[in-house]
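Homework help board

Subject: predicted structure for assignment chain

Our instructor gave us this sequence and asked us to write out the predicted structure in token form, then describe one feature. I got the tokens but I'm not sure how to describe them. Can anyone check?
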Amino acid sequence: MEIWINPACSKCRSALSLLDAEGADYIVRRYLEDVPSAEEIRAVLDRLGLEPWDITRTQEAEARTLGVKEWARDAGARERWITALAEHPKLIQRPIITAQDGSAVVARTDEAVRDALGR
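My token output:
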């Protein structure tokens, strides 16, 4: 199990606390320092069953600068979104947990963290 976090994020800290309380074995990836490649983002999106715009933090200043809210949200625009996430990792929603069964969850709630633990 791996969890992508930003240590400054309260949701990330909560997820880590719950994982620790449950005695989970996990690896922490500080994705702002260890930036995921476009290929890794594609793989996580497949595991999540989501599209890149579903995990983009559109309220971030970088997102406003890029104008992502106006970007198309279709198959033709998918790579543009993935490239933006790889080049601007601050735009990636957090935390993301990759579960043991090959799936992943955006673990912004205790329920989502517990869901990942049960997989």
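Reply (TA_rk): Your tokens look well-formed. For the description, you could write something like this. The radius of gyration is 14 Å. That's the kind of observation they're looking for.
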